[in-house]
Amino acid sequence: MNRIALIVGASGIMGSNLARELLATGWTAYGLARRPQTDIAGLLPVAADLLDPASLEAALAEVAPTHVFLTSWQRNDTEAENIRVNGAMVRNLLAALAPKHSVQHVALVTGLKHYLGPFDSYAQGNSLPPTPLREEQPRLALENFYYAQEDEVYAAAARDGFTWSIHRPHTVIGKAVGNAMNLGTTLAVYASICKQTGEPFRWPGSRAQWEGLSDVTDARVIAKQLAWAATAETARNEAFNITNGDYFRWSWLWPRLAAWFGIEAVGFDGTVHPLEAELADKAPLWRDLATRYGLAEPDLGRLASAWHTDLDLGRPIEVMTDMSKSRQAGFHEYQRSDESFFDLFAQLRADRLIP
Fold first, then answer.
1. From CA 321, how far away is CA 319, in angstroms rounded?
2. Per the database record, which ranges form the PRISE-like Rossmann-fold domain (predicted)?
3. What is the pTM of this model?
4. Which helix (H) or strand (E) holds 46?
C-alpha cells in the first residue's frame, strides 16, 4: 500500500523526527510550512499558509495524502486568539483536502496543557489535576486551543470519514531552531553561557518540580508513536499520552546535565529564578560566542525559549504521565530520559549550535 504523509510542521522538533521516521520506512512524505526547509533528504516541500485557504488550495493541487500529521501551532497573545488562529489552521487544511477523498487518518499533536490548562491559567488554582495524568481525565472548564483543534479534527472526520488519533506529549526533547517550545536546547544554551561566564548552573524553577517526579518526551519516541498510530487498528479514534516511559526527579537529573558541560550545579535555594530574566541580557554575549566558536546560529532568540521552559520548570505540582493506554494497545517504545538530553547536547555540539 502506498502511504503518503503530509506533515504540518516538518521543520520543527516533532515534525522533522517524524519525517525521518516515515521516510526510513518507505513512506512518501510532504512537509508543509510557509517557508519549508529542504534539509531532510527525500522530504517533499509544500509552501503554504494555513490561514489562507487559497494558498492551501494552490499548494496542495497535486498532493493527495493518505495520512495527515499536525505537529505545529502558532503562538498568540491571548488564549482566545490562540483558539481562533489554531482552530482555523486545522479547519482550513482539512477543508482543502476534503475534495480529494484521499485522507484515511489524521494525527493531531497537542500536549499536557490538555490537563494543566492553557497559557493564561497554566497549572494554577483549582485546575490542578491528579497525577499521573491519564487520557480518560475530562477536559477542564477552561478555554483551550488544544480543545478547539481536537474539535476541528472530530468534525472533519465525521464529514469525510477518516480515522484520527490525538497525541499528548510532555516536554519534547529534540533539536530544532526557531521553535517556540524547546526546553532541551534552552538548557543547553544556558549551560553553555554558564561555562563561559563561570556562573553556576542554577535551578530556575519551583520546589515542587525540583523535588517531585517528572517525565519528558524524546522527539524520536513521539515520531514512532505517530507512525504506529497511523496504521494500528487499536489506535483508531483514540487519544494517547506519549512520554519516554521512565520517571525522574529534577534534583537527580540537574547535576547530571551540569556534569555533561563540566559546570557547577546549584539546586533549589528557596526562590524561583526564571530563565527569561536570566537570559534577558545575554543576546550580545551569545553573538560573541557564535563569532568566537563559529556557531551556526548567532541569534539567542532562535535557540532558547526561556518563557516556556519557565512554565514547565515553575509548575507548583509534580507532573508525570501514565502510558498504560498505548502500552495496552501495542506501543512499547522506551527511552532513558537522561540519555535524551545527552544525545541532544551531542547533536547540538556536532551541528555547531552550542560551543
1. 7
2. 66-355
3. 0.95
4. strand 44-47
Q: Report the C-alpha gap between 263 and 283 in whole angstroms.
A: 21
Residue 161 is given by DSSP the state: -
Amino acid occupying residue 333: E
Q: What pLDDT is recorded for position 118?
A: 86
- Compute the mean pLDDT over every residue in the chain, rounded to the nearest whole number: 95
Residue among 115, 146, 147, 190 flagged as catalytic:
146
113 carries an active-site annotation: yes
Please state the domain count of the chain.
Answer: 2
Of 113, 195, 224, 282, the catalytic one is 113
Domain coverage including residue 303: 174-215+247-319+332-351
**Cell numbers at residue 24, please?**
526510513
pLDDT for position 159:
98
334 in catalytic set:
no
CA-to-CA dists, residue 35 to 10, 11, 28, 47, 49, angstroms: 11, 9, 20, 6, 9
Instruction: Read off the pLDDT band of 119 (50, 70, 90).
Output: confident
73 and 195 together in one domain: no
In a domain, 182, yes or no: yes
By CB atoms closer than 10 A (0-12, 13-18, 19+), residue 236 is middle
